[in-house]
Amino acid sequence: MLTLRQCVAARDPVDATLVLPFELRQKSRLATQLPSGEAVAVLLPRGTVLRSGNCLAADDGRIVRVLAAHEALMEARCANADDLARCAYHLGNRHTPVEVGAGFVRFTRDDVLASMLRGLGASVTAMSAPFEPEAGAYAGGHRHHAGDATHRGIIHDMIDRAGQAK
C-alpha cells in the first residue's frame, strides 16, 4: 500500500495523480486508490485540507499530485454585486461551503438552497465541475501559496500581532 504522509511543493513530473472530491480532500486519514488501482493510505496532520494541484510525498519517495474531482454543483449569479453578496451571506449563514469567483458563488447541489437563492433574485444553474470552496477565515493547517488569486489566505496571514493589516 502506498502511504502518503507529507505535503510537498508542487513539482513536475509526478509519479501519479489522486482524484478526489472536496469531501475526501478534507480528511486527514483516508483509504483510497489511484486510478491504476493501487491502494493508498493518506495520513496527514489533522486539519489538512488538500487543494487541487497539491503534491504529497509517499514513504517510498514517489510524488502524487491531488486533483479535484468533478462534482454535482450549483452556480448562482446575480445582476449586481450587492445581490451576489446577499446570496453569499445567506449561504454562509447556513454554514454551507462555497466557492466564490468572479460574478458567481458555487455550492454542492442542493435544491432547497437553490430555491432560496432564486427567491433572492439569483439565477441558479446545475453543473459538474471541480469544487474549491473557501477555506474560511479561521482555517488552520493548509496555507495557500502567495499569488494564488482564488484563495487569498486566512485572516491571521493578513493581520500582524498588533492588529494592523499587513
SSE arrangement:
Layout (H helix, E strand, L loop, with lengths): L1 E7 L7 E5 L1 H4 L3 E5 L5 E5 L11 E4 L4 E6 L1 E8 L3 H13 L5 E3 L2 E5 L2 H9 L3 E8 L24 H4 L8
Parallel strand pairs: 1-4, 2-6
Antiparallel strand pairs: 1-5, 3-4, 5-6, 7-9, 7-10, 8-9
Structure write-up:
By secondary structure, this protein is an alpha+beta fold. The chain folds into two domains: 2-68, Sandwich (HSP40/DNAj peptide-binding domain), CATH 2.60.260; 70-130, UreE, C-terminal domain (Alpha-Beta Plaits), CATH 3.30.70. The protein has helices at 22-25, 81-93, 111-119, 155-158; strands spanning 2-8, 16-20, 29-33, 39-43, 55-58, 63-68, 70-77, 99-101, 104-108, 123-130. A six-stranded mixed sheet has the order 2-6-5-1-4-3. A hairpin with a 2-residue loop joins strand 8 and strand 9. The protein is elongated. The protein starts with a strand and ends in an 8-residue tail after the last helix. Mean pLDDT is 87; it is low at 141-161.
